Recover the amino acids of this structure.
């Protein structure tokens, strides 16, 4: 009987599991589409090698022959149809390791909005504190947390700065660590509580946890939606999975708007956009240019270094108005938004 550990995401869980058990093979098979994403994976890989010396970096097409003789296969990553494509047709019995979440599963039957979900989960957490989670293996993650919270005390002003477009200190900058599982979200949750105990809580410190509940919301509704997460109609009506618009025409239309051209440049060069810019991007894509939200979501998937299947498709569906949203879509008025969040046009100057 041969065993293999396939690491797609959730690196800390994978490292932990590899230390508990001797596998015949440990295969790191990250999925990336752009050079920026690949560079990010390679950086992760070099830190991972310290923890799992026997692991090999493999591409998706190398997996089938390597797994052919394995009867026991554990997968650290997303348990969703997108990742399952990798193993399709191989007829393997896969065991999925835990996801990077506060709770592995949450019953969303009857949940119709984020607000309702948040209230339910906050009530539950009060009685059942979140378990500790795994402390970060990577020094870089520990340094980032220490600097953001205890050196710069940026958590104290997060609520006021979180809509900023340009400065790295405007928000926590932790999304890529959460997405790849180099930071356990349960650890982060309790880290914030500890910070609040030591330095006091305010609306800002609470709001970081509030945002983590958005992430949790999208994970659980994503689980419940299964393939409908990738359906053009989302929760509305019959599913439509036809392939998105041809890329060239859509992007060329989109970048005619200078701000969107600048956003596209930032995304393709860095693999990151602030939350506010992601919202404007999606809104402009869907409502101003009348483009297919599924193709927009795919563009993000292919470029974001913090790509998270649930948060990405969940947010796009939310803005398109085909997900769990009682208001039915979010169209942003760019002119007004810019007056509020970037009156001097600093973003455009920086990225055009
Ligand atoms: C169209 C669209 C697509 C998105 N795609 C992704 C994605 O693929 N991966 C991803 O991690 N986030 C995604 N987000 C959510 C959000 O934009 C990023 O998590 C955030 O900008 C990352 O920066 P940060 O870590 O500094 O966030 P902070 O503002 O510091 O927030 C702390 C953490 O809370 C979570 N969070 C914050 N806002 C959201 C949100 N709206 N939905 C879900 N989780 C949230 C993230 O884990 C984030 O790291 C998307 C948002 C939109 C509007």
């Amino acid at each position: 009987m041969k065993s293999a550990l396939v690491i797609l995401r959730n690196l800390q869980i994978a490292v932990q599991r590899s230390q508990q058990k001797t596998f015949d093979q440990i295969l790191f098979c990250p999925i990336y589409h752009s050079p920026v994403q690949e560079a990010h994976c390679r950086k992760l890989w070099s830190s991972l090698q310290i923890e799992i010396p026997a692991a090999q970096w493999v591409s998706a097409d190398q997996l089938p022959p390597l797994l052919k003789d394995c009867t026991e296969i554990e997968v650290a990553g997303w348990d969703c149809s997108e990742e399952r494509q990798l193993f399709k047709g191989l007829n393997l019995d896969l065991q999925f390791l835990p996801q990077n979440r506060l709770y592995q599963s949450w019953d969303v039957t009857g949940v119709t909005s984020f607000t309702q979900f948040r209230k339910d989960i906050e009530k539950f957490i009060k009685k059942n504190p979140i378990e500790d989670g795994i402390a970060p293996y990577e020094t870089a993650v520990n340094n980032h947390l220490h600097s953001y919270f205890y050196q710069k005390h940026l958590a104290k002003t997060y609520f006021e700065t979180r809509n900023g477009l340009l400065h790295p200190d405007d928000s926590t900058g932790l999304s890529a660590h959460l997405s790849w599982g180099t930071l356990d979200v349960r650890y982060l949750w309790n880290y914030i509580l500890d910070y609040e105990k030591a330095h006091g809580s305010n609306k800002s410190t609470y709001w970081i946890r509030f945002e983590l509940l958005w992430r949790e919301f999208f994970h659980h509704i994503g689980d419940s939606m299964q393939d409908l997460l990738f359906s053009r109609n989302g929760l509305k009506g019959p599913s439509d999975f036809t392939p998105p618009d041809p890329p060239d025409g859509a992007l060329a239309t989109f970048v005619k708007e200078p701000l969107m051209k600048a956003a596209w440049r930032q995304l393709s060069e860095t693999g990151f956009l602030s939350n506010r810019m992601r919202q404007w991007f999606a809104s402009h894509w869907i409502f101003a240019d009348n483009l297919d939200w599924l193709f927009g979501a795919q563009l993000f998937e292919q470029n974001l270094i913090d790509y998270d299947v649930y948060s990405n498709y969940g947010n796009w569906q939310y803005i398109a108005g085909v997900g769990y949203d009682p208001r039915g879509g979010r169209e942003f008025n760019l002119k007004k938004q810019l007056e509020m969040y970037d009156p001097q046009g600093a973003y455009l100057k920086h990225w055009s």
User: Anything to note?
Assistant: Residues 162, 171-175, 178-179, 208, 211-212, 214-215, 218, 274-275, 278-279, 282, 300, 304, 306-308, 311-312, 315-316, 319 surround flavin-adenine dinucleotide (CB under 6 Å). The chain has a mean pLDDT of 93. The CA atoms of residues 163 and 276 lie 6 Å apart. The first strand starts at residue 2 and ends at 7.
